[in-house]
Amino acid sequence: MSLRILDSWYGEQAIDYLDAWELQRQLHADRVADRIGDTALFLEHPPVYTAGKRTEPFERPQDGTPVVDVDRGGKITFHGPGQLVGYPITKLPSHVLVVDYVRRVEEALIRALAELGLRTGRVPGRSGVWLPEAAGRPERKIAAIGIRVSRGVTMHGFSLNCDVDLAWYDRFVPCGIADAGVTTLSVELGRTVTVPEAASAVAPHLAELLSWQPYEPSPDLDHAPSAGASVGSVKLSTRG
Q1: pTM of the model as a whole
Q2: Is 162 a catalytic residue?
Q3: Given the DSSP bridges, would you call strands 153-161 and 83-89 parallel, antiparallel or unpaired?
């Protein structure tokens, strides 16, 4: 059964985070009960910060911006206009470990970004998708991943920076990593890359990787992680 993608929430139709979270819960219950097949939500949110279970008080915005505490792994991150957010609601086969699922989502993004003309990869010891240090610029994170698995079905997912305003990232410590940068497709490619354009590139790769067939992972970027680097945004739960 192929992955069904629902994507009615771009631009002016951006969906409030709490509304999307409730929709995720409904789809999760349906997927657990096998009333639906694997489904992914592709969308944009109005500006919001979400804090995973590992978020420290000092990592939160200090300007009064609202923060939603969520039941995924990882630390704090930003969602907003110009960012493709994907929430796969998928049932993991018995042979697929949670870390394998995360790597497949990363791989889908890496392949989609290569198709758009941007070389990215994984950084050992850090979750998400990155650009390597180059020309005096630090490593830059372009996609974040934070998931939850309950009753064998995934929730939450990834965020990919397309043409998001990077000033939002000056207000907090993104994903708890203070020694690296954050970037967007538009900045790196020197042209405006819209969320729908990025979504069109990501969708077929995500569907392929979540068909659970063997695949050849892209090579990691060269990196020596510093002390205190984040090691991932994964939370495994057996509760509903």
Answers
A1: 0.88
A2: no
A3: antiparallel
